[in-house]
Every structure is written in structure tokens, then in C-alpha cells.
Design goal:
Blueprint lengths: L1 E5 L9 H15 L3 E5 L8 E3 L2 E3 L3 H4 L5 E6 L5 H10 L4 E5 L8 H19 L2 E4 L2 H6 L7 E3 L14 H8 L6 E6 L11 H9 L7 E6 L5 H10 L6 E5 L6 H7 L2 E4 L10 H8 L3 E5 L14 E4 L4 H13 L1 H19 L1 H12 L5
Parallel strand pairs: 1-2, 1-5, 5-6, 6-7, 7-8, 9-10, 9-12, 10-11, 12-13, 13-14
Antiparallel strand pairs: 3-4
Helix pairs in contact: 3-4, 6-9, 7-11, 10-12
Length: about 350
């Protein structure tokens, strides 16, 4: 098959959407298919701002493909992609990653985008969503709406070698390590880093814990300033950008993964799957999609949204019940292997590309 992956963002730029597009690209190439990737940094358009871009050239560049896979939303260009699909009579598959929220001018732009979103969805032969839980929450409907969770490489992210990873990263084996992984930029404001830092400043635990924040972006300095203002400079390590090769070591070195997202712009949480495959318990917000990756009191804890005190209680309870950290982590690893392994999801996606319904 000749496949076009179209996405507003792609590695090395940070973000879960781009990571999913890359995973699909590499997997289908490895399976012998021809895959081209279209994104604004590779095909500049007439305007670009953040993750939005107007790229009219997609109309003719997307000719002669067996399938076009759009990672949605792609503000400024998704209507060109749908129109190209119509002109060239090419099946369009959409992965619906999120429904953005915003205020002020951003909210206005999102409302304007709704004017042509119907056309994009109408043109799609299938719309894939990370969970039906999230689809219901945003009132997403389509004649061929398919639950398609993102996969995780359970060989790359595994649970063996915690001591070795800690030695490599210079982390004491006696510490309880909390881990946050995510982009620290304005586009990912919804990750909840403020909530996380506020919660850590209220922990009444002894000094045997550390928070590691993996990620970079234009808000990193602000978060570092907030950590200092909360007297956390000795408790929080900001690693900056971490290579794809080194990232699994941070998961293996950790005890508890945290995703305190604050609104439905976070629709899934690929980092939670990475943590689960690494055998780690997670504490996540009770958001549609996000909560589907954590079974409360079995693979981790699900807490109220935007509630620093609830996060304090959850982390304190886990630290006081270390046996549960290990138990939840083992359960999370089994869940990742059984439900989200690459082989299972790839087979399902390939069937959809060929026009089958699952």
C-alpha cells in the first residue's frame, strides 16, 4: 500500500500526536508499505502559527495514494486534506486526537474551525478515537466510529533494570521517585504542571522523595521559577529534553507516574501507557479517555480534575503503602501487554486501511 500520514506536528517536535504519526509511519514501513509523511515543517504553507498551518499544496501533493491518514485536528489545513481525498477519490482515515479548549481569541478560532469540520468528518471513511469514553464526552459521532487506542512498544518500555537505570541517572535507590513526562510549552498548557508543583509543595512526607519532570518548552522557565517559589528546588529535577533512547530509563527509575491534566484537551495520555509498559503505577486526572488507561486501585489512582489536594492525598497514600506501588505496577504492565501491544493494534489498523470494518 501507498500511505500518506498527514499531521500538524512530527518528531523531533514534542507531542503525543506527532509520536503516534511516527509510530504508524515506522511500523508500516517495516511491514513493507510505502509511507510518506506530510507536516508543515516539511511542506511549508502560506501561514503557520503554533501547530496550525495553511498548506494549500496538500491539494495536489496528496495525489496517487491508496489511503490518506489525517491526524486531527490540523487547524488551517484539514479541509484541504479532505478536499484532496474527494478530488483524487482516495479513502480518508482520521485519528481524532482531541477537541481543544481555549479562551479569548483561541476560542473564537476553534468555533470558526467548526464551520468546515463537518466536511472533513463527512469525507472520512473511518474515524478512529482513542476511547469511546472520550468520543462520548465531546459528542463525536460518525457512521464508522472505531475505538483505536494507541499502541505501546512493550519491548522498548519494560519493567526490568530499575537499579541499573537509577545508577545510570544518578538517582538514589532509597528515594521514592515521582515522574512527569510531557512538553512544557503553551500548546500543552493542559498537562497540569502547576497542579503537580502545588501538590508537591504540600506533601508532608519526609525527604525521601523526588519529582523528576521530563520535557522542555517555552514554559519551562516559569515552572522552574514556580518550583523555587514553592521551596522545591532541591526536590524537583527538570531534565529538559530527553532523547528517545534515554526516555525508558526515566520510567524504569521511577516509582509513580503522574498525569494531572486539567481539561479534555488531554484525550488519552500516551505517557501513561509508556509508564504502564514500564511496570509503573500512575496517578491521573478523572478525564474522559485519560481515565481509561488506569483502573482505580488496580493499576493506579484516578483523582478529581484540577485538584492539588486530591493529588497530595493520592501520593501520600501510595508512599505509605509501598506494597501497592509494586502491585499496581505489575498489574499495569500486564494490562499494557494484553491490550495495547503494537502487534494487536497494528493488525486492526491495517484492516481499516484495506477498507474493512472492525
Amino acid at each position: 500500500m501507498k500511505i500518506a500520514q498527514v499531521t500538524p506536528i512530527y518528531p523531533p517536535a514534542p507531542g503525543g500526536m506527532g509520536k503516534v504519526a511516527e509510530d504508524y509511519t515506522l511500523a508500516f514501513r517495516a511491514a513493507g508499505h510505502e509511507v510518506d509523511v506530510f507536516f508543515p515543517d516539511k511542506y511549508p504553507g502560506i501561514f503557520k502559527h503554533g501547530h496550525a498551518a495553511i498548506v494549500p499544496s496538500f491539494l495536489w501533493k496528496l495525489r496517487s495514494y491508496d489511503v490518506i491518514h489525517l491526524h486531527f485536528p490540523f487547524y488551517g489545513s484539514d479541509h484541504f486534506i479532505a478536499l484532496a481525498s474527494l478530488i483524487w477519490k482516495t479513502p480518508l482515515v482520521i485519528t481524532y486526537h482531541m477537541k481543544n479548549q481555549g479562551s479569548g481569541f483561541l476560542r473564537f478560532l476553534f468555533l470558526v474551525h467548526k464551520l468546515w469540520e463537518w466536511f472533513v468528518m463527512w469525507r472520512a471513511s473511518a474515524v478512529l478515537v482513542s476511547s469511546l469514553d472520550y468520543a462520548r464526552s465531546v459528542k463525536l459521532k460518525h457512521k464508522n466510529l472505531i475505538s483505536m487506542p494507541f499502541w505501546i512498544d512493550t519491548e522498548k518500555f519494560h519493567s526490568e533494570g530499575k537499579i541499573e537505570s537509577r545508577n545510570k541517572l544518578g538517582i538514589s535507590i532509597n528515594q521514592i521517585v515521582f515522574l512527569f513526562v510531557g512538553a512544557l510549552d503553551q500548546a500543552h498548557y493542559f498537562k497540569g504542571v502547576d497542579i503537580l508543583l502545588n501538590a508537591c509543595s504540600k506533601l508532608r512526607l519526609d525527604n525521601s522523595w523526588q519529582l523528576i519532570i521530563v520535557g522542555d518548552g517555552n514554559l519551562k522557565v516559569r515552572f522552574e521559577d514556580l518550583a523555587r517559589a514553592k521551596n522545591l528546588e532541591k526536590k524537583v529535577l527538570f531534565t529538559g529534553k530527553v532523547s528517545d533512547k534515554d526516555l525508558p530509563d526515566y520510567y524504569r527509575a521511577a516509582d509513580i507516574h503522574i498525569l494531572p491534566a486539567i481539561d479534555r484537551s488531554e484525550a488519552f495520555g500516551l505517557v501513561t501507557l509508556e509508564a504502564a509498559a514500564s511496570g509503573k503505577a500512575s496517578v491521573v486526572s478523572d478525564l474522559p479517555g485519560v481515565r481509561t488507561l488506569v483502573e482505580h486501585q488496580k493499576t493506579g489512582l484516578v483523582i478529581p480534575v484540577n485538584d492539588a489536594q486530591a493529588l497530595v492525598v493520592a501520593l501520600t497514600w501510595l508512599v505509605q503503602h509501598k506494597d501497592k506501588i509494586s502491585e499496581f505496577g505489575q498489574n499495569a504492565r500486564k494490562m499494557a501487554v494484553d491490550k495495547y501491544s503494537k502487534q494487536i493494534i497494528l493488525q486492526k489498523l491495517q484492516q481499516i486501511y484495506k477498507g474493512g470494518k472492525v
